[in-house]
Write a structure and sequence with these properties.
529 residues, alpha/beta, six-stranded mixed sheet, 19 helices
Length: 529
């Protein structure tokens, strides 16, 4: 089992025919007999290659619209037989089963079909049966059989054959078996996840997730932690699908923070104007709308210039040269946007440590989806926080009615608060954050931190008073006591948006009325741990 095994006979049945003809020709040149099925056999013959139909091997034609073609002992016996087992060899001889030394299979495009939103019947028809069965058989018998399930491994196999006189080593076959089982596991995970959604089962008895390696990472959150980035294939614009134009590889923390930044800025429809979000350690340190991308960036930057250093910047539209020139004045880890013009790319080209990513679009903040997090012994699964609140959803609970400017700013602040770690407090004025308190154990502390940051920026900008004066405030969850309301009133805030729902709502509303604040309830909270 440990010695190199020669490849004399291969079975090829692929949905993705990228590189197939060149690969098969190189196998044929080595004198390897090729068995094949359906469209693969047709493509190979049209290229002038000699191919044996699996139907001729099994004695049965393909039937039932191709659902049954390889599920036969002549195929699975050839894959599963132990070449050093006398009984297996005798059975092969008795039943005319020839060994299959190489299996090359990639599966029906179920993931792609489901991602396109195809109908139920189309998705069902794109569930591969024979392919996974053969893959698992060949992978189990990796002591003697080589299995290839990814187009990108064609060259690796050919290099292995070149290095070992048309043989494969056990180490190579073991690696390919691991890849094969991971592929069938990912495939089944995709099918089961889709089917749970199709039948409306939010808590299926078993839940599986899978990903494909995008890149190994130098380390994780800290240098002593190994890490890698895997992608699910979800068709959602973001860091996983972006094109990187320059700069060194993204780190674990870069990827996490860039995702947070882009998901936040996508909340702001570009049809309603440019927006910019600056993120540090997965929390926003400045978010703003503006008359231009440059204006939005400057206003976001002025919320907390200190924290913005070494941060992640996300835009909801095209990055232009003027904005790039302003961003380039400080050290920034990553800039991500749907697109970037040539002036912006040229300006950033001089900043070798800055990564520029473009995505071609924005993710839909209201689209459904799943989010999961590991805990000891298991993982938590929940729906993506796609909650949205508009003007009709707001309930004014204070004596003072908010004016139109305050309502617009409250909705802006509420949108930002959704992306701030709890306990979250966001001060905003004129569609820009002016103070953010994040991740505190006490909501009062978050209120005070947001105020202090605004005071520091007022001093840095030479302002007569902090921008929290006259601002609105968003709280991601209800105020449990009136002390939070009193703290934000001391900061000069004039209006509050919060979910409501506390046992002491009456006390909190009374405090708002006593302090002359307008207050609205959303009936929806946005905890983010």
């Amino acid at each position: 089992m440990s010695r190199p095994v020669p490849i004399r006979r291969a079975l090829i049945s692929v949905s993705d025919k990228t590189g197939l003809i060149d690969f098969a020709r190189k196998l044929d040149a080595r004198g390897i007999e090729i068995l094949s099925t359906g469209g693969s056999a047709k493509s190979l013959r049209e290229a002038g290659l000699t191919v044996v139909d699996v139907a001729d091997v099994t004695g049965f034609p393909e039937m039932m619209d191709g659902r049954v073609k390889t599920l036969h002992p002549a195929v699975h016996g050839g894959l599963l037989a132990l070449r050093d087992n006398a009984e297996h060899l005798a059975a092969m001889e008795a039943h005319g089963i020839g060994p299959i030394d190489l299996l090359v299979v990639n599966l029906y495009p179920f993931e792609e079909t489901a991602a396109k939103g195809a109908g139920y019947d189309d998705c069902i028809e794109n569930i591969d049966i024979g392919g996974p069965a053969m893959i698992r058989a060949a992978a189990k018998n990796h002591g003697f059989v080589t299995v290839i399930v990814d187009v990108q491994d064609y060259d690796a196999l050919l290099a292995e054959l070149d290095a070992n006189d048309d043989r494969t080593t056990l180490a190579f076959r073991q690696r390919q078996a691991q890849i094969a089982y991971a592929r069938t596991a990912a495939y089944d995970a995709a099918v089961s996840t889709w089917l749970a959604g199709a039948i409306g089962d939010e808590t299926p008895r078993r839940r599986a997730f899978a990903g494909t390696l995008s890149q190994p990472l130098r380390y994780g959150e800290n240098p002593h932690q190994g890490a890698a980035f895997y992608v699910t294939g979800e068709n959602r614009p973001g860091v996983a699908t972006a094109r990187q134009w320059q700069g060194k590889e993204l780190s674990y923390n870069n990827i996490n923070d860039t995702d947070a930044a882009f998901e936040l800025v996508a909340e702001f429809d570009p049809a309603e104007g440019p927006a910019c979000a600056i993120i540090k350690h997965a929390n926003p340190c400045g978010v703003a709308r503006g008359d231009s991308a440059l204006d939005a960036y400057k206003r976001a930057f002025d919320c907390d210039r200190t924290s913005a250093f070494g941060g992640i910047i996300a835009l909801n539209g095209t990055l232009d040269g003027a904005t790039a020139e302003e961003i380039a004045k400080i050290f920034t880890e990553v800039v991500i946007a749907p697109d970037a013009d040539e002036d912006a790319k040229r300006i950033f080209a001089a900043k070798k440590n800055l990564r520029l990513l473009t995505t071609g679009g924005l993710p839909d903040p209201q689209a459904p989806g799943l989010a999961f997090r590991q805990v000891a012994g298991g993982f938590l699964v929940q729906g993506r926080d796609n909650g949205h609140v508009g003007l009709p959803d707001l309930k004014v609970v204070s004596d003072r009615q908010p004016d139109d400017r305050e309502l617009a700013d409250m909705l802006f602040a509420w949108t930002v608060a959704k992306h701030v770690k709890s306990n979250a407090i966001v001060y905003a004025k004129d569609r820009a954050t002016v103070g953010i308190g994040a991740g505190q154990m006490s909501r009062v502390d978050s209120t005070r931190i947001g105020r202090r940051k605004s005071e520091d920026m007022a001093e840095a900008l030479g302002l007569a008073q902090p921008l929290t004066v006259g601002a609105v405030v968003a709280s991601d969850a209800f105020f449990p006591f009136a002390d939070g309301i009193e703290a934000l009133a001391q900061a000069g805030a004039r209006a509050v948006i919060q979910p409501g729902g506390s046992m002491r709502d009456d006390e909190v509303i009374a405090a708002a009325n006593r302090l002359g604040l307008a207050m609205v309830f959303t009936g929806q909270r946005h905890f983010r741990h």
